[in-house]
Amino acid sequence: MDFSSEQWLILIVLALGLLSLLGTALGGERGISSWGPVIFVRTTKGLGLLDRLAGARRLWRLTTTLCMPLVLAGMIYFLLLLLLMVYVMWRAPPEPGSYSSPRNVLLIPGVNQYIPLIWGWIALCVTIVVHELSHGILCRVEGIRVKSMGLVFLLFPIGAFVEPDDSELFGDEKNPPKATRHARMRILSAGVIANFVVAALALSLFFGPVISALSPVDRVIVVDVEHESRFAGDVRAGMVASGASSIEELYRIASERRSVELFDDTSRKAISGEPVLGVLVVDIFEGSPAEDAGMPERFVITEINETRIESLESFRDYMNSTSPGQVLRINTTGGSYSVRLAPKGDGTGMIGVAISGTALYLDGVILQEFQAERFLALMRSIPSSGLRGFNTLMGLPFTGIGGFTSDGFQGFSGAMLYLFEPAGWAEPLGGKIFWIANLLLWIGWINMYAGLFNCLPTIPLDGGHIVRDLIQTLLDRVMSERSAERFTRGIVAALSWLVISSLIFTVLGPYLAHGIPL
Description:
eight-stranded antiparallel beta sheet; 20% strand; elongated
């Protein structure tokens, strides 16, 4: 069942209310406590394991000390990214959509439409266990008592925790902390560092031997379905055309049979109609002749001045013969338009559109060849693309890459399973290589994201405590202890307010600017 954003919001509110009542009812049970709708289940079993794992104290201290600059780098990166999102939201707030939908605010696998249920939950469990276990180990390395370990429930398990003795870690009104500032920073950094290490290992395997073991398969897929199409409810972007490896072959099949069979991993659908070849326009440039002529954002060009346009090559050949100021009559699947060309750098005329390539149009369904080899090349280039590649990786589940999978890349599932095949060392594995790919991708991505989020300089996140100790250590060198403590509280409070208000604004911005869609 597909719920609207408002229905999801109502369901979430009702579920939280019921959980709050359940948490109150269970609050007196042994080992169980609640905070609103969040239920905590604690146990002291397994604490001995932390002592055994903490045996190599020098190694743990050295590793966390050397990796702490990564935590600071992650803090600066994610804070700047958050502020950039606020700036973009302020200057040009987007219309409310899937990104701002209540179901997608929290990265809960299966609820968030961009994170798959099974792979997402496996990855989230790995992320939480690694993060909390590392905190617990470093607590014991630094001689801080761990009171309990446990699970956090919100309808279902959403986390795990290690509960150190706060009076020993942070101190209280009567006693100073047992941990030094440097020891405390190592303890608080351990979870983030562990997430980064696991992310680096998983993503190195994903972008290395796993992606290299995939071979492209020539296929034609659905890239768009017009809302007015009679197939709009049954056909989805990403479905594969049966029996055709190229647009030309599919056009021949559609012309002969007057129908095309589409499929993915869940359904099959035959569509019919008169096939038309053309070039797909995916964007209109601002202030261009195309915009002045009132062209829509997405359509297929089929004729220019009564000349058939059946491929990207024929479109380029025609446009290379034009001149600035020339008026063209352009027939498209969205109507006919008269366009006066603007000058182009090479002296020819320009319409002002972004062309995706040759496409087949069949009664509101647009199909193109999937460039699987180019897709793999773009994926393989991410690790070597520096900060740009890292930003691409951060947005991969939501925006896809290079114009592919515009609704995001959730791994090798659905129609993606028919666009690639195992090769080389992975050939004996068959389809299981896609299981490995999805597992590594999501373990790597969620560990990376969780680590960066916990770096944010706001309490109660790890980053907030780390930046507080770091600032006070620096200020102690230039002013009295009392003044340093007062300035530190003010700076940390300002950073916390900045982070929290920025997070809220990025969620509510589209609704504040455009209202709640009815």
